[in-house]
Amino acid sequence: MSNILAIVGRPNVGKSTLFNRLIERRDAIVDAVSGVTRDRNYGKSHWNGIEFSVIDTGGYVMGSEDIFEEEICRQVALAIDEASVVLFLVDVVEGVTEMDIEVATLLRKSKKKVVLAVNKVDTGKRLHEAAEFYQLGLGDYFPISSINGSGTGELLDDVVTAFIKTEGEEEQPDLPRFSVVGRPNVGKSSLINALLGEERHIVTPIAGTTRDSIYTEYNKFGLRFMLVDTAGLRKKGKVYEDLEFYSVMRSVRAIENTDVCILMIDATLGFEAQDMNIFRLAERNNKGIVLCVNKWDLVEGKDANLHKTLTEGIKKQLAPFNDVPIIFISATNKQRIHKTLETAFEVYKNRSKRIPTHTLNEVLLPIIEELPPPVYKDKKVRIKYITQLPTAYPQFAFFCNLPQYVKEPYMRFIENRLRENFDFTGVPIKIYFRPK
Ligand code: GDP
Ligand code: GDP
Fold first, then answer.
1. How far is the CA of 184 from the centre of ligand 2 (A)?
2. Residues with beta carbon inside 6 Å of ligand 2?
3. Which residues contact 121 (CB under 8 A, 6 or more apart)?
4. Cα angle value 176/178/184 (rounded, 5°)
5. Could you tell me the CA-to-CA distances from 146 to 21, 129, 130 in Å, in that order?
6. I need a surface site. Which of 96, 345, 353, 415 has the fewest CB within 10 A?
7. Starting from the edge strand earliest in sequence, which strands make up the sheet with 223-228, in order?
8. pTM above 0.90, yes or no
9. Interior angle at CA 321, CA 320 and CA 322, nearest 5
10. Ligand 1 atom showing the smallest separation from residue 146 Cα
11. CA 394 to CA 354: how far, in whole Å?
């Protein structure tokens, strides 16, 4: 169902270097100091036409040396639970360590696909030394160099055999799929219980054969949809609740299997860095988003202006993609719960919206005529026509003579005009300039 690759291993073996290579962000800063929390721990990658998410677990290891061991083992256990492929990275320079042996023992017991990669094999001599990792009992390994990229192609060839082919397209299910995402304790289970809780007769839990595919059908008040991964949410693993890594793993999986994410935050805490991480994750996956500010009952001094001030504050943080509905709710008081669902439906409709080519051209070409892309290297960019691509989420192709000369600010301008003229609230849109 979801294509998730988790990279596990000791600090300093090169996890984040490999991560950056896989998600093609080679310019990212790699910190040689072990244990530094990095804010960019997940991204999208593709290989042989297969898209997948990559999670660098290393970014979540915090604190002093002595808590590393316990934390790494917990992460490995989580990665086994939540990812579809676990990539165990070791370091040929350091050789086999106690920690490696411990991790290998955990991995040998798992039923998930495990891939062993020996990193820092930059030279022929090191290729020879890598053989000592056979003693981990994980079978064949891939000698790689995350720094120069050698061996990573063969590694990926093997990794993607466990994934589902997507070709950039997602399957189109019959019913809209919604999920409630957010960090621990914001009130996700409370909302789901408010929706599904007491009235069990209206819901049909459709549990797949694996833990990967748990949907619950909701059919009430004329609204019919699937809630993603609700069972997992309701009986959450208390042990892991505190871990940011845990909530990210859960979110990644829920987001991948969904059309619209109801991203919940806690009104008493505001919009924080971890909320932003989950928001960007949904955005990067081109999912619809409804931002839901929960525990509104706890907020004091509510007046007409507070809504407005808070909404504006959050939108400022979300920029540039801030055309997102924001709803203030109370899950425990069941306040505006129905409104949340209705909004999720609107976003769903926006995400599947198709604008006919003639309408697009009628509306946008005059705007472009009035304000064309800036002249670049003495050349004028001429946009001939525009069409929406037949994909699961909104993508637009602008055909023109010199697509390479159209820069980011102009794309932003075009996106804003698109949003002004056609309602795409809550939906990330992609714009491409193509040669004609
Ligand atoms: P992490 O803690 O596992 O995420 O490790 P990092 O990606 O931060 O890398 C730790 C150190 O190993 C950095 O100084 C990297 O430059 C270095 N490193 C990573 N990959 C390679 C490699 O393939 N060859 C060599 N020689 N050094 C590497
Ligand atoms: P989850 O970890 O996101 O699933 O959060 P829970 O649903 O378990 O809620 C965490 C805590 O917040 C619980 O003690 C809930 O009773 C409380 N809570 C959830 N929603 C609300 C709300 O709308 N108002 C108030 N006052 N408390 C809430």
1. 9
2. 182, 184-190, 294-295, 297-298, 330-332
3. 92, 127, 130, 143, 144, 145, 150, 151
4. 175
5. 7, 17, 15
6. 353
7. 204-207, 214-220, 223-228, 177-181, 260-266, 288-294, 326-328
8. no
9. 100
10. 23
11. 8
Residue 370: what residue type?
A: E
| Residue nearest (by alpha carbon) to ligand 1 atom 26 | 120
Q: What is the rounded CA–CA span in Å between residue 14 and residue 158? A: 20
Between CA 221 and CA 218 the distance in angstroms is 10
Tell me if 348 sits within 8 A of 176, measured CB to CB. Answer: yes
- pLDDT tens digits, residue range 284-331? 889 999 999 999 999 988 887 888 999 999 999 999 899 999 999 999
Which ligand is closest to the CA of 37, given by its number? 1
Cα dihedral sign for 221, 225, 228, 229?
positive
Amino acid identity for residue 300 in this structure:
E
Tokens of 369: 């005529």
Look-up of token digits 């990067």: 284
- At 415, list the tokens: 């996106």
From residue 119, alpha-carbon distances to 14, 52, 107, 148, 431 in Å are 7, 21, 18, 11, 37
Return d(Cα 79, Cα 254) in angstroms, integer: 15
- Tell me the mean pLDDT in the region 377-392: 92
Side chain identity, residue 248: V
Render pLDDT for 211-252 as a digit per residue (tens, 0 to 9). 344 677 788 778 888 888 665 555 444 445 555 666 677 778
Q: What tokens were used for 245?
A: 């890594």
- pLDDT of the residue at 307: 87
- Nearest 10 degrees: Cα torsion 264, 58, 168, 260: 0
What residues does 435 pair with on adjacent strands?
Answer: 400
Q: Is residue 348 pLDDT above 80, yes or no? A: yes
309 contacts: CB under 8 Å, gap ≥ 6: none
How much of the chain is helix, strand and coil, in % rounded to 5?
40, 20, 40
